[in-house]
Amino acid sequence: MPSVSHARPRQPSLAAARAAFRADRERASKRIGSDQQRRLLILLLATCETVLDKLRTNGDTGRELIRDLERVVERARAELSSPS
After folding, report:
1. What's the CA gap between 44 and 18, in Å, rounded?
2. Which domain holds residue 64?
3. DSSP 70
4. Structural domain tally of the chain?
5. Which SS3 state, helix, strand or coil, does residue 61 take?
6. Average pLDDT, stretch 11-37?
7. Position 8 confidence tier, pLDDT thresholds 50, 70, 90
8. CA neighbor of 44 nearest in space, from 77, 9, 19
9. Which among 2, 17, 26, 31 is least buried, having the fewest CB atoms inside 10 angstroms?
10. To which H or E segment does residue 77 belong?
């Protein structure tokens, strides 16, 4: 009959547990940061597009403002379309 070992499973060391916890927290932090950045970009894009529509509708002559807003819209769209 084979002998059966009744040894308790080895517990991870406290240092290993802390390292694993830190790694999980860092991954979650990066994911949350990325989600927050994406939401802020969506808000920025919507705001800029709304202002641009109003300026164009009113025939506003703020050409420099319009160019700046168009650049912000392009950059926000590019950032949102790039893989995370």
Report:
1. 38
2. 40-84
3. H
4. 1
5. coil
6. 71
7. low
8. 77
9. 2
10. helix 63-81
